[in-house]
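tool=predict chain=A
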Amino acid sequence: MLVPFVFSYAETIEELNNKIGQKNIDITKLEQEIALYQSQINNLGKQKSSLSSSIKQLDLSKKKLIADISITQNKIDKTNLTIQELSLNINDKEDIILNNSNVIALDIRRMNELEQNDLIETILSENDFTIIWNDIENMSSISNALIEMTTKLKKVKNNLEYTKKETTDAKNELITLKSKLNDQKKIVEQNTKEKNKLLTQTKNSETSYQKLLKDRLAKKEAFEKEVEGYESQIKFILNPSLLPQKGVLSWPLDYVYITQLFGVTKDSKRLYASGSHSGVDFRASIGTPVKSVADGVVVGVGDTDKTCPYASFGKFIFIKHNNGLSTTYGHLSLIKVSEGQKIKRGDIIGYSGNTGHTTGPHLHLTVYASEAAKMETRPSKACEGRSYTMPIAPTNAYLDPMYYLPSLQ
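tool=predict ok
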């Protein structure tokens, strides 16, 4: 259980800095722990699928997610400390501004007092010219002091405004981190349910597990052929002039590792009934934030597992962008957007997962020509007479994502 972090507002900036430094150390250690879990998950993915390896993968994913939660909690604590430090800095700067303003006001009053005496009358009435020149020098000194003090005051004011912006940014970051923490907890709960479901379905028997895999593969191949057959019949003439230039999309993940390319590849022939992979696959452990590759509008979200379990996208998001392209993000663990929602490039729209048909956790990204792709609901023979709702496009409307994503070089 996570214990709320309690702050003492009597702490000094130095003490807060020390605590922030310790949080950075804790975060680094957790990142090393996560890297180890990820390496173990990757190694399991290379092994032949078995009940034992699937359970190990779920267990490792859970440990990694719990470490992710600890990192997020540490970042929340660190951000709270940063906000407290910034608040102290704001108070200090506001005190300096107040003091400087008082000094400037005092100097202005002294200047006014000197100027109220007519200098010519003073010269004619005074016998001691030393006093006169002292008054003139005082007026000059005060003027210079006013200029210098005003310059310093403006600098402090600018620093104050910058510090206040930093505080606002930190508070916004805090809101994002708290939202992420809640999302990660939900994904851990899903992971636990998935493990319990697998054990129930197989009754902890390897023979039952292999039969389950065989049944899922048959369902997946039947569903794939059905969708591919329908899409191949849709008549569409691609107009290249409606498509954007290459490299217009951003990466959907912070860390990019491509495991499967678009089109006909060795793996696509082995893994897909159509013999062609409809998008690009990225290595992404369960719970990895997935980002929109461009501005656009969410035109569909769903879960194909509700119709055809383990046969297609699983949890997916379908976005129509403002540049002539549309994208689908598949195999998600959690969806963060809703239909009709406007999205900006880089917005977190969901989290990667292992739903639908997969051989391990990853993110699938499909790119289409927007004019041809749409959400469609169709009855399915492969899925026990049910109807499925998912993105559908003519075969020639599927585009190679790598052409539109940033260069890997």
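The two ends are 44 Å apart (CA to CA). The longest strand covers residues 325-335.
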